[in-house]
Here is the input.
Amino acid sequence: MSLSTFGRERTVFWREASSGLSPLAYFLGKNIADLPRQLILPIFYLSMYYTLLQPQMSAATLYLIVFAGAFATWGMGYCVSAVLSPGLAQVGAIVLALAWTTLSGITPTRGELRQNLGGLGTALNSISYARWMTETLFVEEVASWPPGWAPETDAQMSTLGFDRSAKATGVAVLFAIGIISRVLAYVLMVVVARRKIE
Here is the structure.
């Protein structure tokens, strides 16, 4: 959804920026206009997810985590739509999503990423939205399981490198990724607009 926010209206943005209108006002206005969709889309996703899997965590907690993930990916979609044409933006977004999912630390694990890519693997894993969303969902879900499952879940969390205190950190990092992505998208839009205006 976020790919169409700026990609289809690039010429409008360039025209308005060249006439002296505030690019920041345009960008913020589009962000605010997208907010209702960002709030509603996780509900549609969760209506299927929650009924099929029946997770143990509360629906409100699950909504918060999924909304934070959607906020992060929406910001990354803004970045993609700011630099790629609408036709290429969909392919670019798919490649970006697959790359971040691969670097999430599930398969390959964080240890394997560190072993194969060194510090780069660790750095990319630490900024992967998929890592933070997966870890936060997993930790929050197993926290609501009966204590008898603790040995198995602790072993799995150790293998994956998950931390039981990840909920607050994960949600905060997802929102930070969304904000940083939006700032980057704005900078990219202004840079591309200046090139077009000149």
Notes: The chain has one domain: 3-197. The chain has a mean pLDDT of 85.
